[in-house]
Amino acid sequence: MTRVVFLLVPGVHLLDLAGPAQVFSSAADLVGGYSLEYVGDSESVPSHQGVPLGATTELPELDVRDLVFVPGWRSPKIAGTGPLSARALAWLKQHHAGGGTVASVCAGADVLGRAGLLDGRRCTTHHELQDELERRYPHARVVRDVLFVEDDRVVTSAGIASGIDLALNLVAARHGPATAAAIARTMVVYARRNGDDQQASVLLRHRSHVNETVHRIQDVIESRLTDRLSLAELAVAAGCSERTVTRLFGKATGMTPLRYQQALRVERAEHLIGQGATVETAARNVGFEDARMLRRLRSR
Fold this sequence. Notes:
alpha/beta, Rossmann fold, Arc Repressor Mutant, subunit A, 2 domains, six-stranded mixed β-sheet, 10 strands, elongated
């Protein structure tokens, strides 16, 4: 039996906790052999969303098969947040020293840092906290804009939903990718992402503007990803001229509509390849006539 122990910090984000917990709960249903436990410095731990969480203050004795997760908490800045006792930090460090695996989601990386587990290791956290984590732990090697990083049984993730990706990866390492994929399907997860995937998708990176005309154009491109779209068609959908489409789209996103469609296609193709598709099959499925264009775009 593998115990997955969640170390709860006041102000914990519910999804930082619930995502990995659901993965291992589903693993227990599918393959068995997992139990979930929740520990903290007090028996009632407030979440940032207002739901009080029950925990035990007794820190269990663990073996090398067990996992300890530290979910993140609300933290525009890390300093002065996430209070945790020296006793809990020593317990966390002892588990790793004994051969166990420790993991964090978002600001939870700071707890691993306080326990001395980030020094000399690669790690990551939410993109808004990376600079501060680097300043607080100058001997750590902070990897930017990735979903999760594993280094010598210290596993850190970007935050919020990336905790699901991290947990699925740990399940895949223990039980194989088919089991992880089955759990992802059970959870209705759209895609099981790799650790080096960027924290923000192409869609999210170019949807932060406020131009409604460009949003309408993007809606058309995304809904017809595999189609050849002319500027004339996009202009009709946007209710403006072709020249205006090009000007507004470039100003809002920094690229042309064609480049945006290509970027979406490449990202989707990368996902298909990661799921086992050949480059040729992935290229056809996302709208390229053959794999040559996909290879050229990937090489960029």
